[in-house]
Amino acid sequence: MELYNRTQIQNVVTLDQAALEAVEAGFRALGQGQVVQPPILSMAIEESNGEVDVKTAHIRGNDRFAIKVSPGFFDNPSIGLPSLNGLMIVFSAKTGLVEAVLFDEGYLTDIRTALAGAIAAKHLSREESRRAAVIGAGVQAELQIAALKLVRDIDTVDVWARDTDRASAYAERMRARFPDLTVNVQSDIKSACRQADVIVTTTPSKSPLLDDSHLPMGVHVTAMGSDSPEKRELEASVMTRADVFVADTRAQSETNGELKAWAGSTPPFEVRELGQVIASSQSPRNRADQITVCDLTGTGVQDTAIAGFALSHLTPAP
């Protein structure tokens, strides 16, 4: 068994086309029915304002599978510690033996989450998309745009966040990272989204932020912040106005994601799954003026895919 730390993993896994293709292949296998993926195991540690999620999946035919343990303790910043942490344990799918522990401290989760957003945009947004709006100014707000640039020639970003100082700091970081990118800080969500080709919501909000009045014609929306029962980023009107609604998995969207808006009832639109869209090799978008929405809650198959990709680059060739 090998143990790899975050620095070692960061040296071989970045936001690039190879990593994107690995995660996309995981989604494709899910859409083809080639994945065993149990529900998320989640446990609250209420006295410490914490939670722990465990995700896993096996892609049939793969030599390895991963189990990810992802703690979030949200008072940690007050004592100088990060809120999020975690690791992935990689097992042999032939013997069940542990092959490696990837002590990535949540890095691989950040990467695969950003890549999932790019994959959604690749299959659902207009190819000529150039302008993105990002709601939120944290780590994923930065990574989602970096990943989006792998699949679309984004040249302008409009950012809105509740904390204006954080939005300004985000804009400075993005301009330094991407000198060719125009980054505008906007005072409200409507202004941020007015000219957007792609909107990405990246917040831990517990009440909806985006509504149908914010959506220009032809826009694609990726909502990735709602990943637990108490979170919501989209008003129901966003989904009912959309021409196409896609979830990473319907079951998770109903419990953790945006389909909670129809708890106990059937939504008045068709729900597609991202893996099935990818496996079909045909985008459900067939007109430039259509509005598309993708709800990403984070899946075990993404973790197994990115862990296998990481280990293949960490392990010396025989």
From TrEMBL:
Q: Cite the SUPFAM superfamilies for this sequence.
A: NAD(P)-binding Rossmann-fold domains
- Record's InterPro entries? NAD(P)-bd_dom_sf (IPR036291), ODC_Mu_crystall (IPR003462), ODC_N (IPR023401)
Task: Tell me the superkingdom of the source.
Answer: Bacteria
UniProt-listed Pfam families: OCD_Mu_crystall
Protein's name according to its UniProt entry: Cyclodeaminase
Source organism of this protein record:
Kushneria pakistanensis
User: Lineage of this protein's species?
Assistant: Bacteria, Pseudomonadati, Pseudomonadota, Gammaproteobacteria, Oceanospirillales
